[in-house]
Design goal:
The chain has helices at residues 28-39, 41-58, 63-97, 107-117, 123-136, 141-156, 159-179. The protein is mostly helical and 183 residues long. The protein has two domains: 28-97; 107-179, no CATH class. Helix 1 runs parallel beside helix 3 (63-97). The model has no long low-confidence stretch (mean pLDDT 83).
Length: 183
């Protein structure tokens, strides 16, 4: 019996048994970056960049997850930055619309103080301006009371009473006058 002869490969290639592909390792930081992207977006994006660099040099799997961590991380970071910017703008708008600052005078108080400061000495005009200021101080009873006492002293008090009332009025409203730019 003769052994069958197989033709030789003209190219001289050696045939080898095909091997099952080895599963390649997935970069751990790619998982971490994707998870962090939702919890701490900036950290997720940064870890994603590190993971991409490692994958590039090591040839590991996980590029898609790392890329998703980078993209999602930066997008969520942008949304968070926009959110905080809008909150900041809202707080500033609320402060300025409530009268120029935390505890500062309202525009109505500033207008009344300015009008009173520019009064020509006409007692009847000043009475109206004091009434306007007392109304502007409606939510501040102490300042409203001092304003009313000053008005009464101007209208019917002695010069000593007027001086005393003016001194008390200036002491109580000094901060408001300064913040309104009257001094």
């Amino acid at each position: 019996m003769t052994v069958p002869q197989y033709p030789q490969d003209p190219y001289g290639a050696n045939y080898q048994q095909p091997q099952a592909p080895q599963p390649s390792k997935t970069n751990t930081l790619s998982y971490v970056s994707l998870i962090l992207a939702f919890v701490m977006p900036v950290a997720g994006a940064i870890v994603g960049h590190i993971s991409l660099k490692q994958i590039k040099t090591s040839g590991e799997e996980g590029r898609g997850m790392a890329l998703a961590g980078v993209i999602i991380g930066w997008i969520l970071t942008g949304f968070l930055a926009l959110y905080f910017l809008l909150v900041f703008i809202g707080v500033i708008a609320a402060i300025t619309s409530s009268g120029g600052g935390l505890g500062g005078p309202s525009s109505q108080v500033c207008s009344a103080l300015d009008n009173l400061n520019q009064a020509s000495g006409n007692i009847f005009a000043e009475k109206h301006l004091f009434d306007e200021l007392a109304e502007a101080y409606a939510d501040q009873p102490d300042k409203q009371r001092v304003t009313e006492e000053f008005k009464d002293a101007i209208l019917s008090g002695t010069s000593d009473e007027q001086a005393k009332a003016a001194e008390e009025f200036d002491r109580v409203t000094a901060d408001d006058q300064f913040q309104c730019g009257i001094y």
